[in-house]
């Protein structure tokens, strides 16, 4: 009985403080129409990586097919979801988003063999440049390295993806993957 009366009191308190309830109970005019809210993630910064959205065939520098990739905008345009399948059938996924705490673009990649977490934004040439870390092998803490990726939109509609890993022994960045994204033909 005490629980029911407590719930009833909470319900009455909520109704009494709701703006519509106040207007109705006071006999005053109807409440003002709700303010139209700006849709989420409509700031231009959320479109910085849109050049990567689509369905792609990805080729290595030697012209061989490296795999296919599908990038979609989700969550009201707040998130780019990547779904990768390499030529051998191995998969991986990433979430790409503007980190609201830092204002930077961030990518978190997960596959069976590695995780990558890096952040950044558009560089002076309009390329998306991210830097962070890559980790290898489940359960092998400390088995990782500094990592960076750059996605460059090209005039012909392709995108060049360039990954580099930092080699501590040589104290230099070394190429990890360089590929060219070509849009897949759309079915008609």
In brief:
With 188 residues, the chain is mainly beta.
Outline the structure in words.
The chain is mainly β. The protein folds into 2 domains: 1-36; 44-183, Lipocalin (Beta Barrel), CATH 2.40.128. The protein has helices at residues 2-17, 19-26, and strands at 54-60, 65-74, 79-86, 91-98, 105-111, 114-122, 128-136, 144-153, 159-167, 172-183. It has a 10-stranded antiparallel beta barrel with strand order 1-2-3-4-5-6-7-8-9-10. The termini are far apart.
Keywords summarizing the entry:
13% helix; 10 strands; mainly beta; 188 residues; 2 domains; Lipocalin; disordered N terminus
Topology:
Elements: H1 2-17, H2 19-26, E1 54-60, E2 65-74, E3 79-86, E4 91-98, E5 105-111, E6 114-122, E7 128-136, E8 144-153, E9 159-167, E10 172-183
Antiparallel strand pairs: 1-2, 1-10, 2-3, 3-4, 4-5, 5-6, 6-7, 7-8, 8-9, 9-10
């Amino acid at each position: 009985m005490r629980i029911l009366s407590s719930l009833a009191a909470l319900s009455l308190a909520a109704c009494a403080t709701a703006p519509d309830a106040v207007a109705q109970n006071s006999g005053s005019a109807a409440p003002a129409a709700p303010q139209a809210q700006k849709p989420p993630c409509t700031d231009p910064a959320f479109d910085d990586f849109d050049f990567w959205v689509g369905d792609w065939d990805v080729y290595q520098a030697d012209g061989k097919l490296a795999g296919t990739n599908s990038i979609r905008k989700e969550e009201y345009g707040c998130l780019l979801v990547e779904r990768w399948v390499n030529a051998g059938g191995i998969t991986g996924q990433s979430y790409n988003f503007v980190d609201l705490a830092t204002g930077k673009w961030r990518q978190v990649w997960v596959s069976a063999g590695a995780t990558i977490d890096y952040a950044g934004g558009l560089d002076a040439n309009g390329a998306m440049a991210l830097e962070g870390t890559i980790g290898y092998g489940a359960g092998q803490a400390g088995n990782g390295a500094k990592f960076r990726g750059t996605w460059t939109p090209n005039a012909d509609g392709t995108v060049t993806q360039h990954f580099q890993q930092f080699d501590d022994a040589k104290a230099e960045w070394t190429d990890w993957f360089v590929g060219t994204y070509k849009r897949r033909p759309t079915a008609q």
